[in-house]
Structures are given as C-alpha cells and as structure tokens.
Batch of 4 targets.
Target 1
Amino acid sequence: MHASFSRAKAEYLVGAARAAADGHIDFEALPALGPEEAEARLAALRGLGPWSRQYILLRACGFPDCVPAGDAGLAAALQRFHGLEDRPTPEAQRRLMQPYAPWRSLATAHLWASLG
C-alpha cells in the first residue's frame, strides 16, 4: 500500500511527530484532559484544523460530545436523515447536531453507520 501526501501535509505530519518526540505535546495524555484543553493543545499544532481536531477527540480520545463538522460522510448522512435538498455546510452540520448534545460523538457514529 502506498500513501502519498502533499508536501504541506507531510510537513504537518513530521511537525506533529517532532512535537511528540520533543515533549511539546503528549498525545497519550489528551484523553485525561477535558475536551477543551485537549483541543487547545491540538490547535497548537500547525496543520490541524477544526475537523482534524474534532476527529481526533472523537476517535482517539473517546470524548462523548464531538462533531467533526465539515466531514463529507456526516454531511451526506445528515442530508439524508433530514431530507435536505443540499448537503449541509459545516455550520449547518453543527446546528443539526446540537439536539444530540452531550452525546454528539455517538450520534455522529450512528449517522456514519447509516451510510453503510
């Protein structure tokens, strides 16, 4: 299997690895932090935008109330679930997911599963 990254993505990945190796971020400690603090630490890493941070908090940290707004699968599932004419924007996705708080991670997983 061969994965290719753009030069920028490769630099971001190397930067994240260096931050972990240098002790600037402890990825293993993130789940023990609150979600806001964990996201703030991830935000300090160049190249990790809101979607990436929320995805990491949801999948790697197991926080119960994350929404990776901007996710294509989430947009498709919300469009189908709500019978929307157009795919919801990231902001619309956040709005549509609000009723599921504080369990939006679980709702996201169910919405993703509905596509399969």
Target 2
Amino acid sequence: MDQTTLQAVSSQTLAPTAETVEHGFSMLDMFWGADPIIKIIMLMLVAASFWSWTIIFQKTIRLKKLTDAADQFEEAFWSGGALDDLYDRIHNRPQDPLSATFCAAMKEWRRSVSKGIAKASDARGTMQQRIERVMHLTINREMEDLERYLGFLASTGSTAPFIGLFGTVLGIMNSFQSIAIQQNTNLAVVAPGIAEALFATAIGLVAAIPAVIAYNKLSSDMNRYANRLEAFAGEFTGIISRQLEEGAA
C-alpha cells in the first residue's frame, strides 16, 4: 500500500463525519455522555437558572402591581377626602404595603383616641412615637416579604460560575484520563471531555449572568419603593402632629 493510500485511510479513520460530530456534540449528547458528577452539576445549575427566572418574573410583576396600587392609594389619600372614610374602606384588606402602613397608623390612632390619650397633653408625644413605630414596623415587615428569595439571585450570581468551573475541571481531568488510558493524544480522544467541561462552564454563566443583572435591578427598584414608603410615613407623621397640635389649641 503506497503512502497516498495510507494517508487517505488515516484521514478517513481519524476525521469524523459531519453527522457524527452533530450527533456526538449536541447538548443532549454532551449531557448524557458526561460523567455522573458533571451531570449532577449541570442539573443543579439548570435548576438554579429555572428558579432564578421564576423569582425574576414573580418579583418584577409584583413590583409593577404594587407600584400601580401605591399610585391609586396616594391619589385617594391626597384627594382631600376624610382619612377616616379612606380607612373604613380599605382597612379590612389593604392591597399594598403603602395602604397597610396607613391602616396600621390609623388603627393605632383610633385606639389612642378611644382611650382619650390624644386629649392628654403629657401623652401626645408618646402617642406620636407609637404611631411612628407602628408604621416603621409595618414597612419593615412588608419589605421583608417583598425581598424574600432575593438573596437566592445574589447567591446564584456569585456561586454559579464557580460551580460550573468545578464541572470544567472534572471534564478536563476526564480528558487527561482518556489520554492516559488510550495512550493517544488524538483530538477525538480529548474532545468529549473538553466539550463537557465547556458545556458546564456555559451553563454556569447562563445561570449567573441573568441572576446578577436581575438582582441589581430588583434591589434598586425595591430600595426606591422602600424610600417611597418611608417618605409617606414621614408625611403622615406630619399630618398626625398637626392634628395633635390643633387638638391641643
């Protein structure tokens, strides 16, 4: 057999067909052909990505609804109508943290008025402090509920690349093991392990990047919403203070 024939046979043996490459290196093929530990890592990253997107959509939709509800409440609050009527209308089912803060303050106000505390000059300062404390406790409780699971996005954004990197290291180790076992440095020997390694890295980045971006965006929006609640509490405290001064006059 001449040299040209040997080269042709060698090239046909070593070079996989397009069909083989497409079949052997698709995402599913790389997953099913991966080491069991790498499979677990991939599944963990996919689950983290799925849960992250669930949190992102849920928090985004909820923030939009809460903002719209806060706009409607503030429109009713500053419309000039009686605050007692507004409280009687919404106190059974506050629709958002802003109205819940208002209802908590009004409830404390009515309790104090019913006990005659508002008419006692020495107790008015204590009454105002209690109302302020009730509003701040309500704000903290509502924000805790709103920020629930947000830490998962931060954890995913910071740890997913390293988890993917762990899968990368395992895939490269498998490649070197294949070289040692087969005593062959051909690309067909090392390619599967390298492909698994890069695939694990890619999944880690796909899970981490949206989580980091969403965490920063949602944190900014929630801080802005918390500042809105605090501003309302301050304004309502001013209204209560004026009411107490007018009652003392």
Target 3
Amino acid sequence: MFNFHSAAKQNVSYGILGTDRFGYTLVEELAESGVDLLVAGKTSADIKELRNITENAQIIRDYSKTALKDAGFKNCDVVIVCLEDMTDSILATLNLGNMGVKKIISRASSTEHGEILEKLGAEVIYPERDMAVRLASRFKSNLILDFVQLNEVLSIFKAQIPDVLAGKTVLETSLRRSFDLNIIAVVQNGKLIERIRPDMTFQQGDVLFLSGRKEDFSRFIRWADSQKK
C-alpha cells in the first residue's frame, strides 16, 4: 500500500489491536509516518519487539470494555482491529463502538464475519482477498502498479504512464473528460508532483496516481493497451 504520509499531517491518533503479521506490518508503516500510535496484543514476544518501534506497545489481557479502556483505546481517533479469531474480533469491535471510538476498521476473514462487523458499525477490510485482487490486477496489465480501494465506489490507482501519453500535456490527455479519472499526483524524474497544472507534459517513465471508479480505470487501461504498436 502506498501513502503520502498524510496521517502525520492530520494529527490523527491510531490504535492497533492485534499483533499478528498484518497488525505488525501496520504498526511499522504507521510508525514510519510519525503518527500518534497505540498498540496492544496478547503475545508478549510481539509486544517486546514492537517496543523497539513504538514505546506505546502493551500487553492486553482480554478484549472487554474495561481492558480496552485501561489500555487507552478510548482516546484513539481510529482503531484498527487486526484480530484473526472471529469471536475476539467481534467482541473488540462491539466494545470499541460502545466506548464511542470515532472510527473502527476491522479485519474480516470471511463474508459472514464482515457482515457482522459492518452491523456493529465498523469499516471492514479483507486483507487476504484484497491482496489477491491487487495481484491479479497487476497481472492483467504491466501498467498497473498498485491500487487502494477507499470504499465501494472510489479507489486510488498507481499506474505507469502509457507510451501513448508521453509527450502530451494534462489538458491534451483529458483523463477526467475521457475516463472520469482525476490525477492526484505524478512521480516524474523521481519527484512527487502534487500540484498538477494543465500545461504539464507527461514524460516516459512517469508514474500516475489516479482516483476514480475501478470500471473507469479498467476502461482507461484497456484503451492504453489497445494503443500499443
């Protein structure tokens, strides 16, 4: 997953509940961005290692409302529940919601698990399924580098510039008019450009960050592939 280190700028405090591989990786990524971070898990070995990354890592005895409050999760703006066990995941999500946590993101291992979490008010992610979709998307075209699904409608895509667009300006390509895609950033000559001007000229090797719907991005990729000589 890519990011622009925006979380640190927004002063958002994050809580990570669960320290398996998924949770551990999240901690590493968020800590690197400099956000206010709280981590808790039941495995003492993981917590000991994570204290090398953040001092706010602690062992939690269970996922009751009392334990979650004592750990400090009530003070987090966003809590990400990374627990593999379905019962633990549901209990933690329920109690975090009852505690008034503003935003809860919970990992689901199945569609049924996800449906329960959604009814509890959580935003649901499916790491294994999403990774498979992302990998399959990369195989479909060598232009696709990565994507992040923000919700059921909107995604952000990272793509290599198609050869057909090299040498053309943003205005000439008009991706918004032709494909309903918005350019939010371009990496050109190793530099991230966030202010995209209409007269900016695309170069061979540029990387585009585009926002839009998956079907519109797929339409753009099919068009780009059809232009290859």
Target 4
Amino acid sequence: MAETPGTTRRAPAGAAVLREDVTDAIRTAVFEELAAVGFARMSIEGIARRAGVGKTAVYRRWKSKLALVLDLVTAVAVQGLPAPATGSLHGDVRALLEVAAHALRHPVASQVIPDLLVEAARSPEIADAVKAALLDGRQGVAAVVVREAVARGELPEGADPDRALDLIVGPLYWRLVVVRGDLPKGYLDGLAASAVAALKA
C-alpha cells in the first residue's frame, strides 16, 4: 500500500532502540554511585536517579547491578593500557608509573577499586572481572616492557614480567590506595630507579 504524501513511516514495534547517550549516562552514574555508597549499598534506583532516567532504562541494558558492574569493569579491561616505547627500561618504567599514579589518584577510582576488591573476595564473578581489569592488561604491558628491555640488553634472558609488575606498581598501589599517602616531589623518579635496579639485580 502506497504511503500518503507528507506522512512519515513509524518505526516497527518490537525491541526498543537503546540510545547511546542514555547508556553513557548510566555508566557514568554507576561509577559515581559506587564511589558514593559502595557496591553493597548501590541500587538500580540510585543509579537511575543519578543518571536522570527511569529504572526501566537501566533494566533494558542490564539485568542486575552485578551485571552492570561486571560490564563496566570488563569495558575498562578492553580499553587496555598501551605499552610505553621510550627506548629505555627506566623510561618505560617511569612512564608506567606516571599512568598508574594518574589512574590511582582519580577520586572515583580511589573509592571504587578498594570497594570492588572487597566485593571480589565474596563473588567469583566480580573477582574474575576485577582481575581482568586491574591485572591482565597490565601483565601484557609488563611483558612488552621486559621483552624490549631484554632485546636491548638491559635485562637478562628469562626476566619475569610478573615480578616486574609487582616491583613497578606494587609500591605505588600500597602508597596511594592502602596508605593513601601523598607523592612527594621526585617520588616517581626514585621509585622508577629503585624498580629498575631491583629488576637488574
């Protein structure tokens, strides 16, 4: 049947089209809600209110708050962390520390990460997602840094990327997330030098 001139065709009934701007607003609201109240007290109602949408908009995208958080954590992991390519082991380690320090000092991350780690102890699903977001990508970057350093002759064959990651990021995480201390001027430079020395030992 021909359409009447001047009329517009209505979208077919069925599954609603999910607007990307609404999805982005919900994701932002989840991070803010996690930082404000933590995972245990977080609710779909609170997320929807903070995002300026109805609860239905959230449930169209995720079946529960756990599914929502797992999706967000996984998305962070997918973004990844590019491996530095400064041309020296010290430069690469210093660059990694700079990126890690920036992320760990972010006001939302400083609240969300410790809370998710607590929840990870109770939920294998959250533990797997957090591991993917916080560890797997960093292990890949550390492997690249170590491999390049070995190729340049700065590290011996068989240098362990996992040990490298522990030495590089471990002290920084302890200071910023556990102790919640400041970073004095020159701290990252000194930490980079110490990590490189330990890797070469």
